[in-house]
Design a protein that fits this description.
The structure is a single chain. By secondary structure, the protein is an alpha/beta fold. Helices cover 31% and strands 23% of the residues. It contains 6 helices and 8 strands, in the order βββαβαβαβαβαβα.
């Protein structure tokens, strides 16, 4: 989100227009600072966004007891490199924590990752909480080890798309650009 305005001196005389852009990515796991994950399949997709246009804000979350976050960190970094603002919540988040963070951060999209076979319960609970909080305009996508038979069930509760292992990062980024608009 950017802003512009006139800078004035002490006498009130306009000194000119100032434009700036705030670029933020929050990683609650600082290991990435030292052990950066590279995404070799990702083309250089970073885009320069107009200073006054709000960027798409994405919350990447790992609900439940699943302790495997490499995929979530890779997709968070790919989203950042594509020009989105990214908030990564880290491991072991409850659906309540995820929804609270999404509302507080005013995100446009929640990306849930599950490898622990609890996706039906956890993703459904996130969707229920978003509706209860009046935040059902926040889109939700999911990824991880999700059986094909569960995908229609997740979509029936409102999850917009499921990305399985092996989905090219470009495909996910293109889907976000096509389907998610800043709120």
């Amino acid at each position: 989100m950017g802003a512009s305005g006139s800078v004035q001196d002490a006498r009130g005389k306009a000194l000119g227009v100032v434009e700036y852009e705030i670029i933020t990515i929050h990683f609650l796991c600082f290991r990435d600072l030292f052990f950066g994950i590279r995404c070799p399949g990702l083309k250089n997709r970073a885009t320069i966004m107009p200073a006054l246009k709000r960027k798409i804000r994405i919350l990447v979350a790992k609900p439940g007891l699943d302790g495997h976050d490499r995929g979530a960190r890779i997709i968070a970094r790919a989203f950042r490199d594509a020009g989105f603002e990214v908030i990564y919540t880290g491991l072991h988040q409850s659906p309540e924590q995820i929804v609270m963070a999404a509302i507080q951060e005013d995100v446009d999209l929640i990306g849930l990752s599950s490898l622990a076979a609890a996706h039906l319960h956890l993703f459904r609970r996130v969707m229920d909480l978003l509706r209860e909080q009046g935040a059902d305009d926040i889109l939700v996508i999911g990824g991880g080890i999700i059986p094909d038979r569960d995908i229609p069930k997740l979509k029936a509760v409102g999850v917009k798309e499921i990305f399985l292992p092996g989905t090219p990062l470009d495909t996910i980024i293109d889907w976000v650009r096509e389907h998610v608009k800043p709120r």
